[in-house]
């Protein structure tokens, strides 16, 4: 029957696309399938229901397809399980009602062509974070948000018209700031310190290129920048945060390698996906905007904020700082370190 062939074809396609990223190829047409793991999982469940309803299981091939489909579902569930309430939290909750030392951050990829400047300013005031990080910001965006400086007297402004401009505003004094071009001279990132309780907290704001044909045909440069920052944060040893639009999902091989290299914690694990992209399409949502924190922190709240008419939702995180308390760090193997070095060297060649 034609319907059976269509069903077999759909199962074959979803299974192939699900395992394609195992190739670890940096080509965009491989890496892009890292993103829709949850969507593939939902489609696979639907296909399993259809398969059970419509297939008579009269042939060996019918059973083979069933086993392959179930194996794919289990494989996909392995990726998304950590980002559910079923999993243990990687970053513990703050248990005190009134923690002494708090730090709240807000990240917004504003979408450079978005002209809803007032809405973004309104959201910044509403969230009232200590540090605000705005991405895809050109000169027009910088001019439009100048009014927030009365609440955020410290800032780093790197407007660019190539969708990789960065604006950083802080209520804390900014120390030891540097604007870095780790891989590409047109793609900036930020490193800076703030002082809380006479101790430094280091922050890394990044926005690497995504592996899509109109931006970058390979993921190597994105992966290298993420891993460079991971190494830098691990070397710092003190409280540190890596944040921004990483153009990568939390469950990708690169992000998991980053967690081992940096020894940072992912606040999403055990709590949810906190999807920030795409804000316009309900069927295509995944987490691209991230906060990764060293184990000196505890989570008070993490929240996807209301839309600012960008293709990304804003996201905020409220943290407490436990200066000496460290746990749940992952360890990088020698193979991990060698792989990270290889990716970085390849991107720099």
TrEMBL record:
Keywords: Endonuclease, Hydrolase, Membrane, Nuclease, Transmembrane, Transmembrane helix
MF term (GO), any: endonuclease activity
InterPro entries per the UniProt record, alphabetical: Endo/exonu/phosph_ase_sf, Endo/exonuclease/phosphatase, GPI-anchor_lipid_remodeler
Chain segments annotated as transmembrane: 6-23, 35-57, 63-81
Endonuclease/exonuclease/phosphatase domain residues: 106-312
Record protein name field: Endonuclease/exonuclease/phosphatase (EEP) superfamily protein YafD
Region (Disordered): 330-349
Entry annotated with the keyword Nuclease: yes
Cell inner membrane keyword on record: no
PANTHER family, alphabetized: CALCOFLUOR WHITE HYPERSENSITIVE PROTEIN PRECURSOR, ENDONUCLEASE_EXONUCLEASE_PHOSPHATASE DOMAIN-CONTAINING PROTEIN
């Amino acid at each position: 029957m034609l319907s059976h062939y269509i069903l077999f074809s759909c199962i074959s396609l979803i299974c192939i696309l699900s395992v394609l990223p195992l190739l670890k190829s940096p080509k965009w047409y491989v890496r892009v399938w890292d993103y829709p793991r949850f969507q593939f999982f939902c489609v696979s469940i639907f296909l399993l229901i259809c398969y059970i309803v419509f297939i008579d299981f009269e042939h060996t091939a019918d059973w083979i397809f069933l086993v392959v489909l179930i194996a794919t579902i289990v494989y996909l569930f392995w990726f998304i399980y950590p980002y559910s309430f079923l999993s243990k939290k990687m970053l513990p909750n703050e248990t005190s009602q009134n923690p002494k030392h708090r730090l709240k951050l807000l990240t917004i990829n504003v979408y450079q062509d978005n002209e809803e400047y007032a809405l973004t300013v309104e959201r910044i005031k509403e969230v009232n974070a200590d540090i605000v990080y705005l991405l895809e910001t050109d000169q027009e965006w910088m001019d439009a948000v100048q009014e927030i400086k009365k609440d955020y007297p410290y800032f780093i402004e790197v407007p660019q018209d190539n969708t990789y401009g960065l604006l950083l505003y802080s209520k804390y004094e900014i120390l030891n700031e540097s604007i870095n071009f780790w891989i590409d001279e047109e793609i900036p990132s930020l490193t800076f310190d703030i002082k809380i309780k006479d101790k430094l907290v280091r922050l890394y704001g990044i926005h690497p290129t995504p592996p899509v044909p109109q931006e970058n045909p390979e993921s190597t440069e994105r992966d290298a920048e993420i891993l460079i920052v991971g190494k830098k944060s691990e070397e710092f040893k003190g409280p540190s945060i890596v944040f921004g639009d990483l153009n990568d999902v939390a469950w990708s091989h690169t992000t998991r390698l980053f967690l081992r290299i940096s020894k940072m914690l992912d606040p999403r694990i055990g709590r949810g996906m906190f999807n920030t992209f795409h804000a316009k399409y309900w069927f295509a949502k995944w987490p691209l905007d991230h906060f990764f924190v060293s184990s000196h922190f505890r989570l008070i709240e993490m929240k996807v904020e209301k839309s600012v008419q960008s293709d990304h939702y804003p996201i905020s995180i409220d943290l407490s700082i436990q200066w000496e308390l460290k746990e749940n760090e992952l360890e990088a193997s020698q193979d991990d370190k060698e792989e990270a070095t290889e990716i970085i060297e390849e991107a720099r060649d």
